[in-house]
């Protein structure tokens, strides 16, 4: 009850603050309010419109979807959402995914029964191996890991957060500044208090390791810490392995609880193992940690909503009790997860040929993004665009955090029909050799016109 009360009051506080800022504003409606006699009066007449999601909302945000969809310009370019596009600017379904789907369709023994609450057992085992390392992880060998299939990365984060709010003594989570916009909302609504730690240095457009270590150093013992496993969104800035080791030592010495968000495994370096190194470092020391995995980007399964939450515990007995409690979080939320996406992932992960084909296709996507970085950098150098643009090739993963101001972004949208989030984040995966010159022209004009 105590936990439930605390969550309710956190939620109430959240709603108050939100309502004050008109975000998610909810006003209790009553049928007896002012114009109830009119025939077309709705009991929801007092509800205020909520702001649209800056990245995903289908009704569209000012800078991204709706404006992009409405724009008749033939040169318009959507670099808002972090979704992979081909050189031709088209969404990509991986060949290996098509092959796996074909196998599934042809298999007449497959049925559409409910999955268990924790999802598809094969999928869970294979997902843990993918992030923790097939043979090497003592955590897997010792049955110290519990993995549950969730609704992509977002669902995995939310289930983990709900579990923590219910069962963990510390209810504060520290997230990097800046971070993916949905993190704060996910953790707040689960009942966790959200604080930030310094991460990005706008001057160097790189990692503020000093600030990061200071902020973690002053976090209360036991606090939860959200870490992007690789390809940090939106900055594209990751710690080096040495810096990860410094961070790990500090986290363990202060008994902080690491919660990894792994939404881009394979997208940073093109190597699945390479991009899992940060997580494996933490699991290797025998301490506890949470990992939210998403297959949206690395298998291109965005709309299938397939992901996993793994909790690494100190003993097999604890892991099994944790799993029993995870079921109590999931059952009233969505009962059990969907079957199709997890079947595709399992088919690919368990078959050596399909797995190898996947790694090649993944590498090709990562390489195309790296090529786009190089081309954009060269194009800006060729134009003599004022400023140091080397961060475009230094940053990694799907995004470049350009350092462009909101005004400059608005200018690019208005004058060049280029759509990106107002913080200056560009999804490099949305670029192609054909569109790089247009973007470079726009950036050049923006930084020379608006200083
Ligand atoms: N974590 C991070 C760091 C992310 O960037 C994203 C997606 C997720 C989790 C959640 O992804 P799932 O689709 O739930 O697996 N961020 C993208 C996609 C659009 C969005 O905002 O959801 C982005 O463009 O930032």
UniProtKB/TrEMBL annotation:
Its cofactor is pyridoxal 5'-phosphate. Residues 17-40 are annotated as: Disordered. It is an enzyme of class 2 (transferase). It comes from Tanacetum coccineum. It catalyses: L-aspartate + 2-oxoglutarate = oxaloacetate + L-glutamate. It holds the Pfam family Aminotran_1_2. One of its GO terms (molecular function) is transaminase activity. This is Aspartate aminotransferase. Belongs to the class-I pyridoxal-phosphate-dependent aminotransferase family. Residues 76-443 form the Aminotransferase class I/classII large domain. Residues 17-32 have a biased composition (Polar residues). NCBIfam families: PRK09257.1 (NF006719). Keywords: Aminotransferase, Pyridoxal phosphate, Transferase. It comes from the Eukaryota. Homodimer. PANTHER family: ASPARTATE AMINOTRANSFERASE, ASPARTATE AMINOTRANSFERASE 3, CHLOROPLASTIC.
